[in-house]
Structures are given as C-alpha cells and as structure tokens.
Amino acid sequence: MEGVSEIDPKLLEILVCPLTKAPLRYDRAAQELVSDEAGLAYPVRDGIPIMLVDEARPLREDEKLTRSLPAPSEPP
C-alpha cells in the first residue's frame, strides 16, 4: 500500500503509552499506535510515532467497544 509507513517491530516492543505505561497496539491502516487502557490513539507520521498526549486523539465509543470485548475464559 502506497503512503503507508511501517514501524520497526523492535520499536513496538519497547514503546508504551506515556500516560499509562501500558503496551500499545499498531493500527497500520490508521497509522496510529493505540493505547486501549488510556483510550487514546497516537499518530504515526512519516514512520515516526508522535508520543505526545496532546497529539493523541481519543478513541471513539465504537472503537472502545470492539477492542474491550473480554477474552473467552478457559475451562478450569
């Protein structure tokens, strides 16, 4: 896909949300690093994550709902 930058997987392993220190999820299509815990999406511009809370956008309700579904429980 033209115009879509990739992020180094090793960088993704060490980046955390600056607000909550929780792990981030990379949304390649939206070019954002998502903190489900904080409910924020940090932009990635020209392959560079912008890890500033002031630059992050709040997740929409529908984004929160689809991402916060509980994992299936395992049998004992």
Explain what this protein looks like in three dimensions:
This protein has helices at 9-14, 61-67, and strands spanning 25-27, 32-35, 40-45, 48-49, 57-58. The chain is α+β, with helices and mostly antiparallel strands. It has a domain at 9-60: Single Sheet (N-terminal domain of TfIIb), CATH 2.20.25. A hairpin with a 2-residue loop joins strand 3 and strand 4 (48-49). The relative contact order is 0.18. The mean pLDDT is 85.
| Backbone shape | globular
Number of helices: 2
Helix and strand composition category: alpha+beta
CATH architecture label of one domain: Single Sheet
Radius of gyration: 14 Å
Oligomeric form: single chain
Identify low-pLDDT runs.
none
- Element order, helices and strands? HEEEEEH
> How helix-rich are the residues, as a percent range?
10-25%
User: Which fold name fills CATH's third level, the topology of one domain?
Assistant: N-terminal domain of TfIIb
CATH level 1 class label of one domain: Mainly Beta
Topology record:
Elements: H1 9-14, E1 25-27, E2 32-35, E3 40-45, E4 48-49, E5 57-58, H2 61-67
Antiparallel strand pairs: 1-2, 2-3, 3-4, 3-5
Summarize the entry for a quick read.
By secondary structure, the chain is α+β, with helices and mostly antiparallel strands. It has helices at residues 9-14, 61-67; strands at 25-27, 32-35, 40-45, 48-49, 57-58.
